[in-house]
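C-alpha cells help. One example:
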Amino acid sequence: MILDVLSIVSIGLLIGAEFSVSAFINPILSKLEPIAEARATSLFAQNLGRIMPFWYGMNLLLMIVEGLIHRHDAGVSWIAVAPILWVITIAFTLLILVPINNRIAAMNPNGYSDELKQEHAKWDMLHRWRVLTLSLAFVSMLIGIRV
C-alpha cells in the first residue's frame, strides 16, 4: 500500500513535470527575446538533463517492484505493460531526444540559430509523444493496481 502510493506520486509528478515543459515552459520561453530564450532553454535542458535520468530509472524500478508485489493479483498483466512502455520511452529518449537536448544545452546563447530553433520545435513535438507514452504506462499501472 505504501509502495503503491509512493509509485503513484513519483510517476505522476514526473509525468506532470514532463507535461509542463511542453504545455507551459516552452510556450513561455518562445515569447522571450532570442538571447534570453536561448539562455533559458539551455539552462532548462542542462538541469532536466541531469535530474530526469535518475527519476526515470527510479520510476522504472518502482514499476518493476510493483509488478513483483502484485504478481499474483488479477491486474498483473496491466502492471507488466507499464515497465515495458517505460523502457520503450527510455530507449526513444536516449536514441532521439537526448542528442537533441545535448545540442540545445551546449548552445551559445548568442548563436541561437534557426536550425537550433527548429531542433527545439522537433524536440518539443517528439517530447509530446513521450508524455503520451508515459501517461499510457501510468494508466496501465493504475489499472493493474486497482483490478
About this structure: The two ends are 14 Å apart (CA to CA).
